[in-house]
Amino acid sequence: MHIDSRNSMSIHSYKLLLVEDDKAIVEGLEYYLIQEGFQVSSCYDLKSALDMLGERQFDLAILDVSLPDGNGYDLCRRIKSLGDTPVIFLTARDDEGSIVMGLDMGADDYITKPFRIRELHSRIKSVLRRAGKVHDSNSEDIITISNITVNLREGKVIKNGNNIFLTALEYRLFLTLVQNAGRVLTRSQLLEYIWDVSGDFVNDNTLTVYIKRLREKIEDDPQNPTIILAVRGLGYRINTISL
Fold this sequence. Notes:
five-stranded parallel sheet; four-stranded antiparallel sheet; elongated
């Protein structure tokens, strides 16, 4: 039986562009936001961000003002020239002039460091809602693929109505895959998403083990997987069509 891939994921996974030169902040935000159901693309400088904007579209951008090769104001102008993508500045510049400049050029919010991550999350949702990109519904917290349901709010994975116990790392890995359903993720990309987030040492061999464990818990027949598929020479993808 075939399942319409448009309905195989029952939430929209919002795509965020994060531009920040502090790698510690990037790692912390990536981990938290991915757990909350967002797809996060991170850049550490202006050039990389501009290149990424030329390759894909985003639902929202989070920008630092001070970048190694430029500033977030120029990037904000570029983003606004391309369309109506909301922008949040996240910066240490807390003087009135900087805040007014950011808002005057079209930024949707301006948050100063240090910041509380839950407050940032709340502001992201508020900006997305104001931009008409969010529609309040309990279904936004649910991803369904085949007979597997992921409850993002509760951090639960359910198969045929029964809870499946996943370790924190297994959950992060599976969530990364389902949020990119139908897209091939290379082994390197998967390692970057789950690498040493909470003290877990993950290398290429360990990734293979975790994929095997996930299949044993998720698949009806782990030896003949129909959900977590390997793409020879590349990586893995989630199948959005039940065979």
